[in-house]
Amino acid sequence: MPLSQRGVAVPAAVGAALAVALLARSAARSAATDASRIAEHKHGMDARRAQHQDAAGSTTTAVISNAQGLELYLRQWVPTQGLRVCGVVVMVHGFTVHSGLFSGVAQHLAEQGLAVVSYDQQGHGLSDCFEGLRGYIRGFADLVEDAVQVLGWARSQHPGVPAFLLGESLGGTVVLSALRRESVREEVRGAVLMAPGIRVSKAVLPPWPLMPFLRAAAAIFPR
Fold first, then answer.
1. pTM (2 decimals)?
2. Cα distance between residue 114 and residue 161, in whole Å
3. Does domain 55-219 have CATH number 3.40.50.1820?
4. Which of the 8 DSSP states describes residue 83?
C-alpha cells in the first residue's frame, strides 16, 4: 500500500527505507552526543580530582576501578598520634550526596582507633558516571557490587581487624542487600543502618492501575 507524504505517493518499501535512514541518522547523532558528553565528563572529573583539596579532613584518598570500568573515588580516615587500628568501618552514603557527608563522624571514629573508608557511589561526587550522566545508575545490583568491592579493598588495607558496615538512606539499602550474601556476613562483625530505604509507603505510591504503565515506561525510557 503506498504511503502519502505531502500529497506525493511513495511506495511502502521506499518509505520504510527512508524511515530506517532517518532513525540511523538520529542514532548516530545521539551516539556522537553521548561520546562527547562522556569525554567532557571524564576530562572534567580528572581535573576536579587533580585540583581537589579534601575538605573532609580524610587522611588519604584513592581511586579504584569497579567491575563496569568506572572509577570510584575513596576517602580514608586513619588513627593518628600513634593509635593502633582496632577496626575498619566502610561507610556508604545516600542518593545525591557524597562520601564527605561522613567527615565529622569519621574523624571522631579515627580518634578512637578505627579506620574509616568511604567512597562516592557511582554517579556521585568525584566518582565516574555511567555514560557521563550524573546520578544515573543502570541497576541497583551495581551499587551492591561496588560496596562489596570497597569492603574488600578496606579489609586489604587493614587486615586482621574487625570490619563493620554503615549505610545512610540509599546506602543503608545497599548495605542491607550486601548483607544478604553469606560471604559478606562472614567478613563483617556488624552493621549500622541510618534511615535505610526498605520499602515505599503505600500512602505515597501512585494508584495501582498506573504502576504497570510506569514500570513499562521506565524499562523503555530508563534515562
1. 0.74
2. 10
3. yes
4. P
